[in-house]
Amino acid sequence: MSQTLVIRFGSLGDLCLLGWALARRHDERAAAGLDPDPVTLVTKPAFAALAAGFRGVGTVMAPDDTGALAVAKLARRLAGLKPGAVVDAHNVLRGHLLLGLMGRRPDRRLAKDTVARLALLRGGRTDPRLDRTMVDRFDELFAGDRPPAAVPAPASVPPLIHLRPAAAASGPLLGLAPGAQWDTKRWPEDRFAAVLAHHLERTAGKARIFLGPREETWFAGSALAAAAAATEDRVDVIRSGSLPDVAAGLGTCHAVLTNDSGLLHLAEAVGTPVVALFGPTVRAFGYFPRLPASRVLEIAIDCRPCSRNGKRPCHRGDLACLTRLGTDEVCAAVAAVLGEGAR
Q1: Where are the alpha helices (DSSP H) in 180-278?
Q2: pLDDT per residue over 8-44, tens digit each?
């Protein structure tokens, strides 16, 4: 077991962003001739197989169930391994309970800057702390593990790049990720259908639609489902599968059109650029795309941001932050990113 124990239970997007920091830690140590010291990562069972693939992760451990009893069992397993450094990269009650049961204080703990975010939400007051991305915050947790600044740092490489196929698909392959955890973060599905139709009409390429359990509830009978069925020889619908398989599927795409969701960050983790549609959430929350080829589309409207994660219903009732994003603008951005991703 590594001397470094890292705790991060979720969510999918945050875990992928943590993956960038763990990969950087590994790559910089290896480039400097230091022991890469792959970490032991604690996460949810649903994310364990994916997390095991992050560069810089040696072992993944997860509770075998939900609830305090499962956390207590995990604490006993971890305490017996006697980790050196403990990094709380989540800073939530579940992690606090785990560490308390282990009889350990974290050596480092994630700073969420919650007060600064609430000030932005409630009064529009900006704070320099919000200039940092989530990856910046994760990187800070491992600053002491990296070599001196005098050692040249290697180029940043996506943490799951090994899941990206070596051979690119013939013709531009567009991925569509029309879901999100909250409905208020979803661009209308009929507009995804319009982008799909435009892509198939203007190119000789194909498309893949990525659905999770939440999307199954509305996809059947939708305009997007009809558009996919009408061109089924050129459109694959990827339903719930293992996260490594979903990641590999995203890796076959030249670009992915996505809402602000976990699949945005999973696509980038395998090196696929995205066109990301942001509504109730904003750059200051730290979740904008990282890849240079990726693009963000958003509408400047005075009620943004309206919640920390997009959970709160739209007080206007029209979801203008997303519905004002037109298909022409999105199609143009998709075409531009596809052109770069297919090179």
Answers
A1: 189-202, 213-219, 223-230, 243-251, 262-269
A2: 998 999 999 999 999 999 999 999 999 888 999 999 9
pLDDT at 97: 97
Supply 23's token pair: 């990969």
pLDDT for the residue numbered 341: 57
What domains can be seen in the chain, in order of their start residue? 4-151 (3.40.50.2000), 169-341 (3.40.50.2000)
Query: Exposed e or buried b for every residue in 299-314, given b needs 16+ CB within 10 A?
Result: beeeebbbbbbbeeeb
Secondary structure (3-state) at 120: helix
Global model pTM greater than 0.90: yes
How far is the C-alpha of 134 from the C-alpha of 21, rounded, in Å? 10
| DSSP letter, residue 117 | H
Angle at 249 between CA 66 and CA 202, to 5 degrees: 135
Terminal-to-terminal C-alpha distance of the chain: 41
* Cα distance between residue 240 and residue 220, in whole Å: 15
